[in-house]
Amino acid sequence: MPAPKQVIVLRKDLGMRKGKMIAQGAHASMKVILDQPKPYPGPMQQWLDGTFTKVVVSVQSEEELLAVYQQAQNQGIPCALIQDIGKTEFSGVPTYTAVAVGPDYPEKIDPITGELKLL
After folding, report:
1. Which fold has domain 5-118?
2. Nearest 5°: CA angle at 68, between 62 and 71?
3. Pairing mode, strands 54-59 and 5-11
4. Residue from 102, 114, 107 nearest 46 by CA
5. Distances (CA, A) of 4 to 30, 36, 95, 111
6. Cα 89 from Cα 106, distance rounded (Å)
7. Helices 106-113 & 62-74, crossing angle to 10 degrees?
8. Which pLDDT tens digit goes with each residue over 69-90?
9. pTM for the full model?
10. What is the SS3 assignment for 100?
């Protein structure tokens, strides 16, 4: 069985600065782990003990981002949705920016994120 991975999905339509994008992806990646009760599920613990494989992809709208999040939730895959408060970008408007899907096995994640373009 292939090793677990995590896919970070970022909104490309927002025109975020590179540093902002990295921060939002990091928030999503950490939130998945911090939200999980211990002991961690098998694939998550395997990922934490392994190589921390991450893939970063993009979507072009809030609707696409929310759809990825909903699909992951529906499949029981650990996931996290990040809403920026708009303090440094987005004119003070809370804005959904990123989703982390997994860590979990590729056969569970790929049907949801496999067709998205690499960032």
Report:
1. Bit1 (3.40.1490)
2. 135
3. parallel
4. 102
5. 16, 16, 29, 14
6. 33
7. 150
8. 999 999 999 999 999 999 999 9
9. 0.96
10. strand
Domain range summary for the chain, segments of one domain joined by +: 5-118
79, two tokens: 């996931």
Per-residue confidence band for 54, with pLDDT thresholds at 50, 70 and 90: very high
Q: How far is CA 17 from CA 3, 13, 20, 70, in A?
A: 32, 12, 5, 26
Q: What are the residues facing 104 on neighbouring strands?
A: 5
Mean of pLDDT over the chain: 97
pLDDT at 46 over 80: yes
Cα–Cα distance measured from residue 14 to residue 46, given in angstroms and rounded to the nearest whole number:
34
